[in-house]
Amino acid sequence: MKFNFDFLTDWTVASVNTVYRLAIQNLYFMLSNALFLALLLIFRMTINNFVLFLVPIFLMLISFLTQFKIIEAHEDRLALKKYGVIYVTNLKKHWRVALFYTFLIAFLVFDLQVLSLTKSVLLYIPFLITSSFLLSSLFFVLLISTDERSEKLSLGRQFFSALLISYKLPLVTLINILCLIATVVTLRIFPVAYICILGGAINYLIYLNCQRRFSVKLYFEES
User: Fold this and answer.
1) Of 155, 186, 191, 219, which shows the fewest CB atoms inside 10 Å?
2) What are the residues whose beta carbons fall under 8 Å from the beta carbon of 49, sequence distance 6 or more?
């Protein structure tokens, strides 16, 4: 049987391109979250000092959006200067989205702290379920925001649309939450590894997961 060398060549090239793309994306992710990295080197991320990380979380959400936008635009070889331009543009245009979800994340974290004082396991169940859909909606809002047409939509419409999509796609939401759990665990145990090594790759997995059942193009066509 003749071995298909063309297949092996194509597979090798695709693998190298994927690794290169992830490496570049992770490098830019690390650079755009330098403030977060600096704080993590000084403070451990806990509920008690969570307020110190509000600004870094806000900026991280902008970097999430920037990464999603680059992937949507199929920008495989992106210069650092152009990445900076896209990042600043997203900050100017979508700061309300990032600010809203920053406060939502803070609200959920402090609610979790209050629940921990009650020591009631039953109260955790509805809280965790609701929080899962709320946090998963973040990624759908970011995907919607990658399209220029999103500027014509109000923040409320984007949020409720994304929340509805999260409820319609429970499996996608579940995988998103598992990725978020991996993120939180990494931030608690080895935070530098998330910023410097894992962050870009985890975001890319979340993007692929959301794209399995959701299309930004169809979303606007059906709106």
Assistant:
1) 155
2) 43
Assign 73 to helix, strand or coil: coil
Q: How far apart are CA 168 and CA 140, in angstroms?
A: 12
d(CA 157, CA 17): 37
Tokens of 147: 């399209």
Rounded to an integer, what distance in angstroms lies between the CA atom of residue 105 and that of residue 44?
Answer: 18
d(CA 57, CA 36): 8
* DSSP 8-state assignment for residue 150: G
Q: 48: which 2 tokens?
A: 């008690």
For residue range 173-208, list pLDDT tens digits in order.
Answer: 999 999 998 888 888 788 788 887 788 888 889 999
How many Å apart are CA 46 and CA 55, to the nearest integer?
15
CA distance 171 to 165: 11
Q: Which two tokens stand for residue 135?
A: 């946090």
Q: Measured between alpha carbons, how far is 157 from 174 in angstroms, rounded to an integer?
A: 23
Q: Are the C-beta atoms of 144 and 153 separated by less than 8 Å? A: yes
Determine the distance from the C-alpha atom of residue 100 to the mean position of all C-alpha atoms in its chain, rounded to a whole number.
14
Which of 144, 50, 34, 152 is closest to 102 using CA atoms? 50
Whose CA is closest to 187, among 46, 65, 71? 46
